[in-house]
Amino acid sequence: MSDLEMRKKVRKLQLRSAIAKMALHELVDDLPVKWTEIQEVAEKTHALYAELDAAKRELSTMKNVR
To answer: What is the Cα–Cα distance from 44 to 46, expressed in whole angstroms?
Structure first.
């Protein structure tokens, strides 16, 4: 994957992560009504942030190799 492609991937993941974070925040505002959704939304948010972290590390590694 090229540097440009990796940067695009990181940007997309940043956007998706921010959206997931807001969904989690909105869910908290709706408690206790939607308490059954907490685990699902939190797991999705966690997975996105883990993927974003991995992509950022890979991009950093690509920059340091140069």
So the answer is: 5
Q: Between the CA of residue 6 and those of 13, 27, 46, what are the distances in Å?
A: 10, 31, 20
Instruction: Give the separation between CA 37 and CA 51, rounded to whole angstroms.
Output: 22
15-55 tens-digit pLDDT: 999 999 999 999 999 889 989 999 999 999 999 999 999 99
Closest CA to 45 of 26, 7, 6, 18: 18
Q: What torsion do the CA atoms of 19, 22, 27, 30 make, to the nearest 10 degrees?
A: -130
Instruction: Using alpha carbons, select from 60, 44, 56 the residue that is nearest to residue 11.
Output: 56
Query: For the whole prediction, is pTM greater than 0.70?
Result: yes
CB atoms within 10 A of CB 33: 9
